[in-house]
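Continuing from the previous page...

OK, I double-checked the sequence for Mannosyltransferase against my notes and this is the correct one:
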Amino acid sequence: GSAMVARALWALLAALRAGWCLLPQSGYLHPDEFFQAPEVMAGDILNLQVYYPWEFLSSSPCRTVVFPLMTSGVTYWVIKSLQQLDICSSCINSYTLLVSPRLLFTIFSFILDYSVYQLAPFWGADPWKALVLLAGSYVTLVFYTRTFTNTLEGLLFALLMVLVSSRKSSGSSAEPTSSSLIGVITTAGFFNRPTFLAFALMPLLYWASLIVDSQKSIKTLINHFLKLILCACFTAIVFVTADTFYFTSVSLDNLYSTNKSSLIDVIAQLHEKMVVTPFNFLSYNLNPHNLALHGSHPRVTHFTVNGVMLFGILHILAIGAGFKMLKKYVHQLMLVRWCYHGPPGLLVHSEGSPTLLLFYFVPLAFLSLFSHQEPRFLIPLILPLVLFSASPNRAVKWKLLLVLFNLLGALVFGCLHQGGLIPCLFHLEQLIHSPASSSHPRHYTLLFAHTYMPPRSLLNIKKTDMHVEVIDMAGSGDETLCQTVEQRASNFTCSNCHIFIIIPGTVRATVTKCGVSFRNETLIFPHLSMEDPPQIPVLSSGNWRSQLGLYILELNR
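Thanks. Re-ran it with the corrected sequence; updated structure tokens here:
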């Protein structure tokens, strides 16, 4: 009976995941969800006006282009083809630009569910209990349906765990046979985010120990490792070649056209211009000064804040279990020393909880070595955590707390957090492309202040169109903001010019002091800015909608 209830609950949560993606989710988690794939691909494939982040500039290539092309690139190519074939006349609009890459990621997110179902029996967890914990987590509902490289990192980590956890029907550990795939996934993960090595370390050590344990012949052992290394090298060559072609704008036609170059000359030219994005990423991120530009955090932030923010009570219970395991292991070690026996087997022979805790805490410890610590860096750890939390001897006593925690997380991050910005861009896109605007060409100036970076691709403006100007003021001070607004107001000459200021309700008073008037205002609700949070006394007054809203103010002539 409880298994049937769990299945029905999982199906309901899976439907919610897909439905909420299509709705779409209005919350805006972090600029990277747009600027590490969809924004770049919208510029390259759909020829839209976009903002290219520094990591994708040929002067500083730090991100592979393979995954953006395979995800957002493919979805944008599909909607472009549908429009060109007249299957739908306006396939490319702000809704499809936002939802199509997210929908692909939402479909991919079910790799996590598949992995949990496959892994649960191996690690002694209840499959349906684990699936409900996974599908009911706001991390799955919100983060795994967004276009983050961390999302792909989590999916690759899940596949790696499936590959290293193989078992015979008799129940004993099977001889691992997936060396080639393990090599491909580890390298692909490294090119997606070099931090993948922190997640891959424990699965790879576990896999290596299983091989050493099950092999009698040195020849077979070497064969496994050679397969892994060869496939890893081949995958790396594919990524390096694709990135080199993309970032150096090298085309095969160009290479062959110069004096009918031989193949050796072509290879030499490619080698000279070779782009290895993970090494550029590492050289940038290993510089403390560069990391400080993105924000420095105490080394314990992942353990004490981010883990709790993402996983709530499950993270706290895992820490408690980790300390107990450590205490038990130290005690065992002391006994072993006294009795002169061999070291206690922790990794291979104590399958289940202790090993899963290592799969959870070892990556956490490695990521804590870096001073820049954001919650999303930990989202791949949801897999070992739900498997650990769903073991039969660990009854989930905190059901109500878990439900409330995930409801709150889904509300804050899925709806409220910077939640007015995407609906605002939808509204502006409709305004810019309205029939009135098309028949009488107008010039639009969109000034964004105290919001996250607006993804320009959602405005759906071709690179050749010069009638829309986007100014991102970020968190500029009052004086700078007023100077820019006043300067724009004084240059208000053409009859068809429209200037819009987009600003959260919490800092709206700033613009009012600038000595300009507005002829029109639109309030988009809800919008929660953590950088300019609403004040509690104001929230309790009748003005709470304004405090939790984003204003689109049209400047008066």
